[in-house]
Amino acid sequence: MRPFELTAPTTVEDALATPGTFLAGGTTLVDLMKLNVLTPQQVLDINELPLRGIETGDGLRIGALERMSDIAAHPGVYPMISRALLLSASQQLRNMASIGGNLLQRTRCSYFRDVATPCNKRQPGSGCSAIGGANRMHAIFGASDSCVATHASDVAVAFTALDAQVKLASADGTRTVALADFYRLPGDTPDVENDLRPGELITEVLVPKLDWASKSTYVKVRDRQSYEFALCSAAVALDIQDGRVADARVAVGGVGTVPWRLPAVEEALRGASLTQKSFEDAAAVSADGAKSLPDNGFKLSLLKRTIIRALLELTEGDR
């Protein structure tokens, strides 16, 4: 780790007026600093900023410095959000990691984290080692010739399914951006991962009220049961009326360069009966448009099976 200067602003105004890299839980930033992937000269510890609180009622408001474990335990949080958080990292890390930091965490692509290998996300124009290398964990949606790295956040998948927004603050004021628009596909500029502008800070996560999202879940498939990133995951919410699906929300993770919403699956589910056959038919379109790499073709079928599993688990008491 290279030397850096640490300061601790106590107001949002002071934090926004001071150049540097923001530090909250540090569960991503410190790791990358140790690997020399990130080498900030000025680090701003923002843990004393008044960016906490969880409010429910007319939607859900979560302060950016709320810890993952506290959000997961809050009674007003939709099940898919709580479950996505509980299936992330370890209990110790969930106690430290902030929700704002989780949404901004960097990819776990091993080539990105190895400064001895080319990576367009880390060093633009150097090349993508994963395309011709070990790519079992990599994306089948949203990839480009410049980058095939998957997005790492579990809870971002649930938030995307629920049309969540992030509130951003800068010295010039505040703005609110839909999370689905906040993340950027890699294209030719994989180093630009989101719409966060220089000096901007996430202050809140806002989730619109959706009463039937109380019937939701998050299923995560991974190589081991704990402290592992998703090979494939599915955040699913269903509005069930008269034994059929009236509406649905479906987003998936572990397969896209950004959290990946599946509107075609949602449409296929509307009006469907609560049978395995109906769920299989809806999941059959989930991989449309996907493009696999030599080592990750298994994700095409795993994606379908993960969605079916989530639907079956969610409707177990209704069938």
TrEMBL record:
Keyword terms: Oxidoreductase
SUPFAM superfamilies named in the record: CO dehydrogenase flavoprotein C-terminal domain-like, FAD-binding/transporter-associated domain-like
Matching Pfam families: CO_deh_flav_C, FAD_binding_5
Domain FAD-binding PCMH-type stretches: 1-212
SMART domains xrefs: CO_deh_flav_C
Keyword Zinc-finger: no
InterPro entries: CO_DH_flav_C, CO_DH_flav_C_dom_sf, Diverse_Substr_Oxidored, FAD-bd_PCMH, FAD-bd_PCMH-like_sf, FAD-bd_PCMH_sub1, FAD-bd_PCMH_sub2, Mopterin_DH_FAD-bd
Protein name: Xanthine dehydrogenase YagS FAD-binding subunit
Source species: Amycolatopsis xylanica
